[in-house]
Structure formats: C-alpha cells, structure tokens
Design a protein that fits this description.
Blueprint lengths: L1 H25 L5 H4 L2 H28 L16 H5 L1 H9 L2 H13 L1
Helix pairs in contact: 1-3, 1-5, 3-5, 3-6
C-alpha cells in the first residue's frame, strides 16, 4: 500500500506541474481572430492531446526508473506494481488541471 501511495504522489505531482507548465509556457496565446474559429479550437484541442500524450509517455518512463524506498519490504517488488505501469492518476492530473484545454472543450461542446 505504501508503494502505491508513493507512486500516486509521484504521478500526481508530475501531472499537476506538467499541466501548469502547459498552461503557462507551452500553449501559445491566440489572437482574437483565431479564437473565434471553430477549426482553430478543434486543432487546439488536438494539439493539447498530442502534447499531453507525449508528456504522459515521458513521465511514465521517468517514474518507472525512480527507485522505491519500499523495495524489498515484505517482499515488495516495485517494478511489478500495477499502478506503476498504468499511471491513471497521471492521466487524470494532466487533463484535470489544464485550464486552456477545458475552456476549448467547453466552447466546442457549446457549439454542438
């Protein structure tokens, strides 16, 4: 259980700070003409999803290489913990905390 909590904390922090990085530095600021275009909004969402998937892949590989302080306790094998491979909390944190992605999705949804 402690190893799962450790992995969850690592993934959550990685996802939270990645979302903040995307919203603050990576995402370009649109001009007013581009903002009103539906094609622009859809392409922006695709851009966010591509960036997010790349970031998730990178973070998952990084976290898998971080040794667990609980390795070997009561026979624990850190590399075999299911949460280390799947990374559901990383996916949740990155998507949940991206303000710009959420705004674009809401705008597209309202147009449908």
């Amino acid at each position: 259980m402690l190893d799962i909590a450790y992995i969850t904390i690592l993934y959550f922090l990685a996802g939270f700070f990645t979302a903040k990085l995307f919203d603050t530095y990576i995402v370009p600021k649109p001009n007013k003409k581009e903002e009103s275009s539906v094609i622009y909004k859809i392409s922006k969402v695709i851009y966010y999803v591509i960036l997010t998937s790349i970031a998730m892949y990178i973070w998952r590989n990084i976290v898998q290489e971080i040794p667990s302080p609980f390795e070997g306790i009561v026979g624990l094998k850190h590399k075999q913990v299911h949460e280390l491979i799947e990374a559901p909390i990383l996916i949740f944190a990155i998507f949940f905390y991206q303000k710009h992605l959420d705004e674009h999705l809401r705008e597209i949804y309202s147009l449908l």
